[in-house]
Amino acid sequence: MERISNFESTLLTIKKKQAEIEEKVNKHLNKKSTPALNSKELNQEVLRSEALVNHIKGIVTTEITPLRNDITKARTDSENNIDRAATKFQNAVDQLDLALDDSLEKVEKNINQLKDEMIKKIQNVNTTLNDQKKSNDSFTVSVQSALVKLDMVDKENTNKISETLNQTTSQLYTNQQLLNENIGKLGSLQQNTNQSIAILDRNMTTIVANLSKL
């Protein structure tokens, strides 16, 4: 800032000197009656002009040239800094893009894996319930067959068959309760699974929206 201030002051000095010279020249040109300068005065004017030229050259050498060099160096440094900053920024953007792509891929993979696991669990529960239903159906047929046989046996075996039938009926009732409990658990599991999938979908949407803002 000090050098720039000195430079501005020097420019004002040069302009002032230039105005003085132009004023003297105009006076000589406009006044035809002015007697011509003698050799001594002319020599003095020449010396003063040479001194002014040397003074201006000195100003250029000591003030303008260093300032010009400083400006050139500052411009070069600024351009280099801008180039380096742009390169760093681009590298950061590239790294961020890679990180976002990797994060999205991992999130999508985890969600798909979790969905597959939920579907497998539901399928396993359905298979178990179907097997239990088949077993109960078979057991019911056996009970019905026992009832038919009960009508055909002798009265001596009625009490024994009735006891067996009661045990069988109790077992059937127990199995039916177990089946109802499993059906209730399946309904609850399906509801929880649907809620989990809905939450996962909302989380995925939120994650994608947040990553898109980065």
Radius of gyration: 53 Å
Number of strands: 0
Classify the helix fraction into a percent range.
over 70%
Point out poorly predicted stretches.
none
- What shape does the CA trace take? rod-shaped
Order of helices and strands: HHH
Rounded to the nearest angstrom, the distance between the terminal CA atoms is 41 Å
Largest sheet: none
User: How many alpha or pi helices?
Assistant: 3
Keywords: Coiled coil
Coiled coil: 97-124
Question: Key features?
Answer:
214 residues; mainly alpha; 2 domains
Write up this protein.
- By secondary structure, the chain is mainly alpha-helical.
- It folds into two domains: 2-95; 98-213.
- It has helices spanning 2-30, 39-152, 158-213.
- Helix 1 (2-30) packs antiparallel against helix 2 (39-152) and helix 2 packs antiparallel against helix 3.
- The two termini are 41 Å apart.
- The model has no long low-confidence stretch (mean pLDDT 73).
Layout: helices, strands, pairs:
Elements: H1 2-30, H2 39-152, H3 158-213
Helix pairs in contact: 1-2, 2-3
What can be said about this structure in brief?
Helix content is 93%, strand content 0%. The protein has 214 residues and is mainly α.
